[in-house]
C-alpha cells in the first residue's frame, strides 16, 4: 500500500513534474515551503521526525494531508537528519514513491541563542548536529538522485544572524554560518552537473513555533516580523533554478527577485 497522499487533481505550475524533498517540514517554514512547492506542481516528500502530535503543533502526516486536500501530492516521510541511516531510508522511500528527486530544501533546524559562556556543551553539539551535520547528510544523500535527473536545485535554509557579528556569538549562528560555507563551496562542485546550490534566509524574523519556543523570550518589534509566505515565495523561485541559473548565492527572502 502506498503512503503517498494525493488527489486526482493535478496542478499545473512552474514545478510540474518535479519532486521535492523538504527536511524539517512538519511545521513552520518547512511546512509553508512544502505547501508552496506542491501548489506549483511538485510532488513533495514531507520529511521530519514528528509523526505524532507533541509539545509543538504539526506532524508530517498533518502537513501531507493538508497538501493533498488542496489538490497536491505529498508523502509523509519519517526522517531524523542527524541519523545517517534514517536519512538514507527517507531518501530511498521518496525515490521509490516518486521516481527521483529534483529539489532539496534543507530546512531542519534547532535554535539556541544563549551567549557562549552560558551554553551547555549538549546545546552546542545539538546545533551542530542538526543545523550543520543534518544539512550535510541530507545533501549528500540526494545529490546522486538530483544528478540522475539531469540537474536540479539544492537549497539550505539559513539565517540573517550569520551577518550580525556586532551582536556577539551563539551556537545557532555559528552552525548556520558553517552550513552557508558548505553550500557556497558545493555550488562550484556541482555546477557541471547542472545543479544549483543556494542558501536562503528570512530578511527579517519568522515567528515559527520553534522560534517562539526557543527564542529566549526575545521581544521582536512588529516591523521586524516577516510572514512565512515570503520564504515560501523565495523558495519556489530558487527551486526553479539549475546550474545554468542562480547558484552559489546567499539569498534573503524579501530581497529575492529573478
From TrEMBL:
Entry's Pfam families? adh_short
MF terms per GO, please?
oxidoreductase activity
Task: Print the keywords alphabetically.
Answer: Oxidoreductase
The answer to whether keyword Translocase applies is no
Q: Which InterPro entries match?
A: HSDL2 (IPR051935), NAD(P)-bd_dom_sf (IPR036291), SDR_fam (IPR002347)
The record's annotation in SUPFAM superfamilies points to: NAD(P)-binding Rossmann-fold domains
Task: State the name under which the record lists this protein.
Answer: Short-chain dehydrogenase
Q: Which organism is it from?
A: Mycolicibacterium goodii (Mycobacterium goodii)
Amino acid at each position: 500500500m502506498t503512503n503517498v497522499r494525493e488527489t486526482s487533481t493535478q496542478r499545473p505550475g512552474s514545478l510540474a513534474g518535479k519532486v521535492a524533498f523538504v527536511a524539517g517540514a512538519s511545521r513552520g517554514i518547512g511546512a509553508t515551503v512544502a505547501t508552496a512547492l506542491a501548489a506549483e506542481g511538485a510532488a513533495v516528500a514531507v520529511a521530519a521526525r514528528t509523526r505524532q502530535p507533541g509539545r509543538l503543533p504539526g506532524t508530517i502526516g498533518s502537513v501531507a494531508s493538508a497538501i493533498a486536500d488542496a489538490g497536491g501530492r505529498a508523502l509523509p516521510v519519517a526522517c531524523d537528519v542527524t541519523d545517517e541511516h534514517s536519512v538514507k531510508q527517507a531518501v530511498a522511500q521518496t525515490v521509490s514513491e516518486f521516481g527521483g528527486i529534483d529539489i532539496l530544501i534543507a530546512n531542519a533546524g534547532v535554535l539556541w541563542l544563549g551567549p557562549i559562556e552560558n551554553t551547555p556543551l549538549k546545546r552546542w553539539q545539538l546545533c551542530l548536529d542538526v543545523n550543520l551535520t543534518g544539512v550535510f547528510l541530507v545533501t549528500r544523500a540526494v545529490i546522486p538522485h538530483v544528478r540522475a535527473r539531469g540537474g536540479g536545485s539544492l537549497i539550505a535554509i539559513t539565517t540573517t544572524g550569520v551577518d550580525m557579528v556586532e551582536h556577539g556569538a551563539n551556537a545557532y549562528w555559528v552552525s548556520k554560518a558553517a552550513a552557508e560555507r558548505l553550500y557556497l563551496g558545493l555550488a562550484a562542485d556541482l555546477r557541471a552537473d547542472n545543479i544549483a546550490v543556494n542558501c536562503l534566509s528570512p530578511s527579517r524574523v519568522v515567528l515559527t513555533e520553534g522560534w517562539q519556543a526557543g527564542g529566549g523570550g526575545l521581544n521582536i518589534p512588529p516591523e521586524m516580523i516577516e510572514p512565512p509566505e515570503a520564504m515560501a515565495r523565495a523558495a519556489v523561485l530558487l527551486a526553479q533554478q539549475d546550474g545554468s541559473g542562480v547558484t552559489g548565492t546567499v539569498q534573503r527572502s524579501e530581497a529575492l527577485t529573478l
